[in-house]
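Bit of a strange request maybe. I'm writing a small parser for structure token strings and I need a real example to test against, not something I typed by hand. Could someone generate the tokens for this chain?
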Amino acid sequence: MLKVSGLNTYYGHIHALKGIDLEIKKGEIVSLIGSNGAGKSTTLGSIAGLVRSQSGTVTFLDNDITNMPPHNIVKLGISLSPEGREVFPALTVHENLKLGAYIKNDKRSIADSYERVYELFPRLKERIKQTAGTLSGGEQQMLAIGRALMSEPQLLMLDEPSLGLAPNLVLLVFELIESINKQGTTILLIEQNASMALSISHRAYVLETGKITMEGLAKDLADDPRVRKAYLGA
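Reply from user aminoacidic:
Good idea to test on real output. This should exercise your parser:
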């Protein structure tokens, strides 16, 4: 479904991504784990067209999307729920979700997307007219994910969805990620909570200082002593 080949991305003179290769197959949950500053968010930004790459290719469903404008990438079926949620605080829950469906013109399709999101996140339906800035952190995270789902993406990219959440909400968010995947959405997940990420993923990559250093089945990486020592606190 998605293939990243030899991707190099710079921030000025800083070489953030150093020729990374990764692949995601339809129906998978794939995790990208690594320490802060390893290049995880840059990887998602490069795929989404938000960060320009200097060399390498990103291919999605046989389309070369390398450095394609972000709105065109969304139209092809990739959506990003960014780190920090980035909801629009002065807009209501319903209005935030509507922005996620900006590529759609069909009212029936938009209504179906609302229905799906409110079914996944009943708490958002209860707060439909509430402004996003007054929501709790967990509710804002649900809204960010829901907004990303409004375009009906084939590939959903999640950047640190559990960041700053209470433990009970972390469990809820991961349960929701699994539910979204079971409904047919492929997921690329960045998550500081490596243990939880690996527990729900099919495969995973380890990113260190801009390079992929390990890859494999998530359960195998979870058992690898190097991964356990560096990311799982073992």
